[in-house]
């Protein structure tokens, strides 16, 4: 099974506007009315490293141009101008667009060192423990340009990112995958940060997380997290995820979740399906060796995977949907 990178990758690079001068990565993408719409995580600079969300569109899913010359979602809209909004994931449910984002409520400087985690220092005040200290939230829109913050979906004191909403309700409830970092240990049933599932009637109150999948393979190191919104197929929810090995190399894995009970993994490939190979996936401004898929679109039977490359630019890759489904079904549990 071969995932084909777009030959002119990277498809989106930083530059052009001040607010996206150093990086554009980890995008959301959706196909609507004959066009692909992408939301990029855009960084203005490294000192401080602050991110906003920009909107682009494309006719073919590979050549994107900006819809607006300014961001469409910002930390200011959260009442937290010193914070940052990151890693958008989009789904459309009952005619409305939902954007799940990760939010760090502080501002920091980033000094890349070329070897995995760069050095971060706070700009004002004290940084919360660990640079990833993240709260996830939801914004809603009817046109993808005007986003309104709806609510937080994780508690303030739990580092919980890689939250991904399923594109339709399951048994009448919203469902999302999540990754509460501290839910680790015997009492949680996992030895490293894992993928969990919660349900909600109204998007505001979420059920206690149920464990879905734990790190199992060497390439997943001690940590896995959800990637892009699961895709409904006849066989179940086809779900991309990422694994981080001990050298901080980010790779992509694939699993299939039960249609009615997505806490149940019905197939999972022990091998990754993508790893950093190209220069733009190995070398970047912030963290090297990262493929971080946050979006997928199925068009004419082809799965388009959109991913952040080394926290700097955006790549696209494709594979026929039936091929990847057939591949993961080889590993039924
Ligand atoms: C994760 C998140 C992503 C980032 C990735 C690689 O923990 O912070 O936003 O792209 O690390 O640095």
Tell me which CATH architecture applies here: 5 Propeller
Q: Superfamily at the CATH H level? A: Glycosyl hydrolase domain, family 43
What is the level 1 CATH name? Mainly Beta
Q: Specify the number of helices.
A: 2
Structural account:
This protein is 4% helix and 45% strand. The longest helix has 9 residues, at 321-329. The mean pLDDT is 95. The strands form six sheets. Strands 16, 17, 18, 19 and 20 form a five-stranded antiparallel β-sheet that branches. It has one domain: Glycosyl hydrolase domain, family 43 (Tachylectin-2, Chain A, 5 Propeller). With 333 residues, the protein is mostly beta strands. Strand 19 (250-257) and strand 20 form a beta hairpin.
């Amino acid at each position: 099974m071969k995932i084909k990178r777009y030959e002119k990758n990277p498809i989106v690079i930083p530059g052009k506007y001040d607010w996206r001068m150093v990086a554009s990565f980890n995008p959301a993408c959706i196909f609507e009315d004959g066009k692909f719409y992408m939301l990029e995580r855009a960084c203005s600079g490294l000192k401080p490293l602050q991110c906003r969300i920009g909107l682009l569109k494309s006719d073919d899913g590979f050549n994107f141009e900006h819809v607006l010359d300014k961001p469409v979602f910002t930390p200011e809209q959260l009442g937290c101008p010193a914070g940052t909004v990151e890693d958008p994931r989009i789904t459309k449910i009952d005619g409305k667009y939902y954007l799940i984002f990760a939010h760090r409520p502080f501002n920091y400087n980033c000094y890349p060192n070329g070897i995995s985690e760069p050095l971060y220092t706070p700009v004002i005040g004290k940084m919360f423990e660990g640079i990833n200290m993240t709260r996830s939230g939801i914004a809603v829109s009817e046109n993808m340009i005007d986003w309104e913050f709806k609510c937080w979906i994780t508690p303030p004191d739990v580092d919980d990112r890689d939250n991904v909403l399923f594109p339709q309700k399951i048994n009448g409830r919203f469902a999302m995958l999540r990754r509460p970092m501290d839910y680790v240990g015997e009492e949680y049933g996992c030895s490293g940060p894992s993928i969990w599932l919660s349900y909600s009637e109204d998007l505001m109150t979420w059920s206690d997380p149920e464990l879905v999948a734990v790190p199992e393979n060497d390439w997943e190191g001690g940590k896995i997290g959800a990637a892009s919104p699961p895709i409904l197929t006849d066989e179940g929810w086809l779900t991309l995820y990422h694994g981080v090995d001990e050298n901080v190399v980010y790779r992509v894995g694939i699993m299939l979740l039960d249609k009615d009970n997505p806490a149940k993994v019905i197939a999972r490939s022990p091998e990754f399906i993508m790893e950093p190979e190209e220069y733009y996936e190995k070398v970047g401004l912030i963290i090297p060796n990262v493929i971080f898929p946050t979006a997928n679109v199925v068009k004419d039977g082809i799965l388009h995977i959109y991913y952040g490359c080394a926290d700097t630019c955006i790549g696209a890759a494709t594979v026929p949907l039936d091929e990847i489904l057939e591949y993961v079904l080889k590993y039924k549990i």
